[in-house]
UniProtKB/TrEMBL annotation:
Residues 25-168 form the N-acetyltransferase domain. It comes from the Bacteria. This is RimJ/RimL family protein N-acetyltransferase. The lineage of its organism: Bacteria, Pseudomonadati, Pseudomonadota, Alphaproteobacteria, OCS116 cluster. It holds the Pfam family Acetyltransf_3.
């Protein structure tokens, strides 16, 4: 295992190795409609191979210090993913991205993951700012972000084409 960190008694973060790719793909395949509400990429994940290609690229980028995408391991099984989508060393900042299977929501998992990633980013990666954004109206994500201590920095109009619907993004940041 290249990278694996235990957050607490229930949660770990680990790079997307085949075991976790398989577990996460099962969630993505079963929950396409749910995940597509707020995310563009699930519709393009049509097979295990699609997700595995992303995982291989993610591990390469982690080794190069360009990103850090991890499986979220809850009680021994992958239940989603989270991490830094890209890392900009020259600016000492990175955006956080995440997703979680619907049956695992409401347990405080993602709030704990995001808080851990913030601390890890500041302490281990030397970041000075962490950013995130969500589509306007994504209240579950908004609750996680605010609980983790992010401050709203603004709204970007027409930020994304989400399956044919143009949506605005609410942008947040947190500084060291």
């Amino acid at each position: 295992m290249l990278f694996k960190v235990r957050m607490d008694d229930e949660l770990e973060l680990a790079l997307l190795v085949p075991k976790y790719v398989q577990q996460n793909y099962a969630i993505i395949a079963a929950e396409q409609d749910y995940l597509n509400q707020w995310l563009n990429w699930p519709k393009d994940t049509k097979s295990y191979d699609d997700l595995n290609k992303f995982a291989v690229q993610s591990i390469k980028e982690f080794a190069e210090g360009k990103s850090m995408t991890c499986a979220i391991i809850y009680k021994g099984a992958a239940v989603g993913a989270g991490g830094f989508n890209s890392i900009t060393p020259s600016l000492k900042k990175a955006p956080i991205g995440y997703w979680l299977g619907s049956q695992f929501q409401g347990k405080g998992i993602m709030t704990r993951v995001v808080k851990f990633l913030i601390q890890y980013g500041f302490d281990e990666l030397g970041l000075e700012k962490i950013e995130t954004a969500h589509a306007l109206g994504n209240e579950p994500s908004q609750k996680i972000i605010k609980a983790a201590g992010f401050i709203q920095e603004g709204i970007i109009k027409n930020a994304e084409n989400l399956h044919g619907k143009i949506v605005d993004h609410v942008v947040y940041g947190i500084c060291k």
